[in-house]
Amino acid sequence: MTADFSQIRRIEHLPARIAGRIGKEIADGRIAPGDKLPTEHLLAKTFGVSRSVVREAIAQLRNEGLVETRQGVGAFVTEAEGRGSIRIAQTALRDRVSFRSLFQLRMPLEIEAAGLAALHHDDADLRKLDDSLARMTGAEKWTDQGIVADLAFHRALATATHNEYFPLFIGFIAERISLAINAARAAAILEEIVETTIAEHVAIRDAVVTRDPSQARAAMRHHIIGAAGRLGLTLEIN
Fold first, then answer.
1. Which H helix or E strand runs over 15?
2. pTM value?
3. Residue 124 belongs to a domain with what CATH number?
4. Residue 189: its pLDDT value, please?
5. Of 57, 125, 160, 190, which cross-links 15 as Cys (Cβ 3.0–4.6 Å)?
6. Could you tell me if 22 and 46 lie in one domain?
């Protein structure tokens, strides 16, 4: 069974929904440029979700250029004229062709990120990868929290490149790919798809740890092709 892309909005996961609601408040002017967003704790309480979900939502807003985060201070709404962000309407990604195009863009970016992460990661990067993987394999792997951990893994890998642009672009794409993860889960036997996805991430992590860029790229390539296949998408590959 392949994913029903017409249902993507219905199964959109929590961080994307929360980011959308906050984004609408910004677009409607109820949260003005320069305003500080409420704390993660307050937002989590307001929306009735965990702080990790709120953190992912704010990361999406940051990747879209709607907010900027200041270490130890919080998240602030950016000035409209200074946003200059890349935006893809969620409605566009209900179309199978658009999703295939996004996966084709993802392929070279994430494969190269895996190779660079194998070469340049440090101990802190490995801890972030392992923390994300632990959450992916824990008790909540069947829930939205498993998806949050999956996205966190890809962000941690992008950060491990020690190239500031990889987290920016991969973070943006990851939020859109989250819709595909939901679609794939809805179209398959959940236990099988989750265990397969975990195994692919473990292979990527192991290759990074051994500082083998060729194997890391191969593991990421295998993962992306597999992820596309679980959506019934065929990528043009060499």
1. helix 14-27
2. 0.67
3. 1.20.120.530
4. 62
5. 57
6. yes
- Residues 146 and 50: beta-carbon distance below 8 Å: no
Write the DSSP string, 160-222.
Answer: TTT-THHHHHHHHHHHHHHHHHHHHHHHS-HHHHHHHHHHHHHHHHHHHHTT-HHHHHHHHHH
Specify the pLDDT at position 9: 46
Q: What is the DSSP string of 77-103?
A: EPPGGG-------GGGGGSHHHHHHHH
Question: When comparing pLDDT for 104 and 231, which is higher?
Answer: 104
Tens digit of pLDDT for each residue in 28-57?
889 999 999 999 999 999 999 888 889 888
58-76 average pLDDT score: 85
**Residue with tokens 């409420």, as numbered in its chain:** 38
Structure tokens at 16: 């994307």
Per-residue burial over 22-47, b if 16 or more Cβ lie within 10 Å, else e, is bbeebeeeebeeeeebbebeebbeeb
Which residue has tokens 């596309």? Answer: 228
236 within domain boundaries:
no
3-state secondary structure of 70: strand
**Residues 99, 211: one domain?**
yes
Amino acid at 116: L
Q: What is the arithmetic mean of pLDDT over 54-68? A: 84
Q: Quote the CA–CA distance of 34 and 21 in Å, as a whole number.
A: 18
Task: Report whether 223 contacts 208 (CB < 8 A).
Answer: no
